[in-house]
Amino acid sequence: MKKMFQKIIASSNNPSISKISFATLIAFCFFIYTPSLKIPGVIMDIITIGIPLFYIILNIKILTKFKPRQWMSVIAMLLLIAMSIVIPQLYETMDFSYFTPLAFYFKRGITYVALLCLVIKRHGGEHVMNYFMLYFALTHVIYVISTILLVIVPGWQDVWFTISSKGTFFDSLSALDASRYMFRIGWQGFAGFHETLCCTFSAMFLMYLRYGTRSPAISAKWFVPAFTICFLGNMFYGRVGLVATLVTCSAAFIHWNRNRIKHIVFATVTLVILLALGGAILKTVPEMSDWYEWMSSPFTNLITTGDVGDSSFNKLQKMWQVDITEDTVMYGDGRYTNDGLYYMNTDVGFLRNILFWGLIGFILSYGLTVYEIMGLRRISKVLMIQAFTVFLMFEYKGAAYYVLLPLIFVVELAYDIESKEKEKWQQLGVSNEEG
Asked: Quick check: helix, strand or coil at residue 254?
């Protein structure tokens, strides 16, 4: 009897594409990337935050699943949001621009918890973490496909953006930039830094589900196209994600297949051939040549000159050279933006953080991020190392920690719920055996 229950735990509700709920997947797509519909803002707020909050209230028991570590993270995040309001007033800068991303991704955390409730309702708790990872990854597969359709199908952008806002970013692009950024679009509008980060995590989740679990939670016939599309998303939305996915997922793949050398060699050769063929084809398409040159320039530079530097990378390097006083390091300047640009014209996340609230906020925000990432070791040490590497790479390029926090938070919450559920099954198995 005990063996039967162990078998149930291992396989009865293991994620697979065939068990995916279409309605649940649509909910993930809509609430993670809610289109900016041309309707009154208050109605959009009701949709984006009111509905998830209401669903959590209907499933209020989810809050009883929070452990002290989850409550501590919630309190720390609320403290950061409060500091983003108080500090500009204390310093009389009245620059509340840091509040916007912090509050937005706190709301995103609420959305993730509501979606987690939906997954539990649909699939139960035994494999809820794996199901959440799979739904999250498939959401980005669909989002990347939407990008392709919006770009290549004539008239689709015009039709879609008559009911949804495209955003003002595209209006400011030059003709050259517009061709390079042609794929930086999805049904939500502009897609860039944060979307490529989520594509990287989607690729990591797919890699974990395929190779990091005791038995593969996704078959090869679904893993390969899904992973490839997420990788395409990195190519479309931001090269830092492209590099992060290549580094972290290659290392994870080699680690999880270290006893299958032929498998590693075959995958490596296949990847090189596909990238070479894809590059050769894209270079011949006039509409895509500028985009391809932009996307591939760090890699072609590395191969031809031994240096990944291009204009964007060199510009980022100069952004590290800012004039910071000891007082700024200790207490911050209370500024996040200035005249529509980031304060002191730096995109570097580490610098933007300390420039705003100094050492205390720096330690609190990054301490919380590292704390959450370290919690992933309970799931997989490889996943933890991947997440930490991605955090460093993205924070070097821009501000990413507040994007990571809600996602890692809900994955760890799902893991705790799953562990509790499996513990119940095991106890039930022991009880039946003793009876």
From this structure: helix
Burial 263-293 (b: 16+ CB within 10 A, else e): ebeebeeeeeeeeeeeeeebeeeeebebbbe
The distance from CA 7 to its chain's CA centroid, rounded to whole angstroms, is 33
Give the model's pLDDT for residue 260: 85
Cα separation of 239 and 251, whole Å? 18
Under 8 Å CB-to-CB from 224, ≥6 apart: which residues?
none
Task: Please write the tens of the pLDDT for every residue from 18-43.
Answer: 688 999 999 999 999 998 877 777 88
Cα–Cα distance, 250 to 247 (Å, whole number): 5
CB atoms near residue 412 (< 10 Å): 21
What is the Cα–Cα distance from 112 to 62, expressed in whole angstroms? 12
> Which two tokens mark 278?
């894809």
User: Pairing between strand 185-186 and 337-338?
Assistant: unpaired
**What is the distance between the alpha carbons of residues 349 and 343, in angstroms, rounded to a whole number?**
11
Rg of the chain taking only CA atoms, in angstroms:
23
